[in-house]
Design goal:
Structural class: mainly alpha
Helix content: over 70%
Shape: globular
Strand content: under 5%
Strand order of the largest sheet: 1-2
Length: 355
């Protein structure tokens, strides 16, 4: 008796959705063991996470605040993942975007209007994140270097560079020794909705980007070529699709949108640059799960970003009220990603038995 793997034909939407639902259920079951080891009822813990995130006005506002960067980043990741380019470096691309935006804010902002300053921050933040993402794209196409390794390693380079800046040459003279740059001038600050940390500008940007990415993937030639490269690279080569050009476009968009999320974090939330873990609570990594949970659909990603925004808020609550480390939430997210990848395998392949 032999086992072998065979590629499935077309699978129904119901089958695919069932596989993803089962993946989430398995992730919840496995995560429950962590709560049980601590002597906490898993139903109580998950209930507390959901209630703290979606059960109050304050929780909802914080959930939306965290969902915004997740949504913007996940849209870029969807573009890359459609082309089977595994961009694990969104966190670093976010940090690079926030760094360039900080330079603009501190050097250009004091002498120019809010419109010009913010426009330049977003444009250069996008370009910086995109160019940082193009590096692994070129290394993959020209030298066949695995993009998972390069994008992951570039995260650490970005983190260390920011730490060098905020503990060194960019350390603010008005921050009493804390590792912060000086606060941004008013022209470089995005206003928040009163009573919350939500920036209406960022909400509009996130939703607009979602709609544009959907159109880009479904209605443009570049989107079609990206899907062909992802679905069947050999067919793409036979059709004469330029791999280098398409891969660079993919990563310019993917890294660029992560950079835009970084601009939003320093302009609307922190209003200065500080150490990397403060700027991004692992948004670049969580956005990977957001994209997969949405089945790489830009519109569905709106809802999965809100869900994971709530999970991050709930993580803060169980950290303070139940004494769990924040890593508990990362473990839960990791379980979801692992089971979804396994589930994705079974949507594309089936295991057969031959006697």
């Amino acid at each position: 008796m032999h086992f072998y793997i065979e590629k499935r034909g077309n699978t129904s939407k119901r089958f695919t959705n069932s596989v993803y639902i089962i993946s989430i259920i398995l992730a919840v079951i496995f995560s429950s063991f962590i709560f049980l080891l601590k002597g906490v009822n898993p139903f109580f813990a998950f209930g507390k996470i959901m209630k703290s995130s979606f059960g109050s006005s304050f929780g909802l506002k914080e959930t939306i605040t965290k969902a915004i960067p997740l949504l913007i980043i996940s849209q870029g990741l969807i573009v890359a993942f459609k082309g089977k380019f595994w961009n694990i470096g969104a966190n670093g691309q976010l940090l690079v975007g926030s760094t360039v935006a900080t330079w603009v804010a501190l050097n250009f902002g004091p002498n120019h209007s809010a419109f010009l300053t913010l426009l330049l921050m977003f444009l250069l933040g996008f370009l910086a994140g995109g160019l940082f993402g193009i590096i692994p794209a070129i290394l993959k196409v020209k030298l066949s270097i695995n993009e998972i390794i390069t994008t992951l390693m570039l995260n650490y380079i970005a983190e260390d560079f920011i730490e060098y800046l905020v503990y060194g040459p960019w350390k603010g003279k008005t921050q009493y020794g804390f590792p912060y740059t000086d606060n941004f001038p008013p022209s470089a600050v995005l206003p928040q909705i009163p009573g919350s940390r939500i920036s209406l500008t960022l909400v509009i940007i996130a939703l607009t980007v979602s709609f544009l990415i959907f159109l880009f993937i479904e209605k443009t030639k570049f989107g079609y070529e990206i899907k062909v490269i992802g679905d069947n690279p050999n067919s793409a080569k036979f059709a004469g699709i330029d791999f280098l050009k398409i891969t660079i476009i993919m990563m310019l968009i993917s890294g660029g949108l992560a950079g835009v999320a970084g601009v939003g974090e320093v302009s609307a939330i922190h209003r200065h640059l500080t150490y990397p873990a403060q700027i991004s609570s692992g948004y670049g990594y969580t956005a990977i799960i957001v994209a997969w949970l949405a089945q790489l659909n830009p519109i569905i990603a709106i809802f999965s970003a809100i869900f994971f925004g709530g999970i991050l808020v709930g993580g803060d609550v169980i950290q303070t009220s139940l004494g769990f480390p924040f890593a508990t939430i990362n473990t839960f997210n990791g379980f979801i990603l692992v089971f979804m990848i396994i589930g994705n395998f079974f949507t594309e392949y089936k295991i057969m038995i031959r006697r």
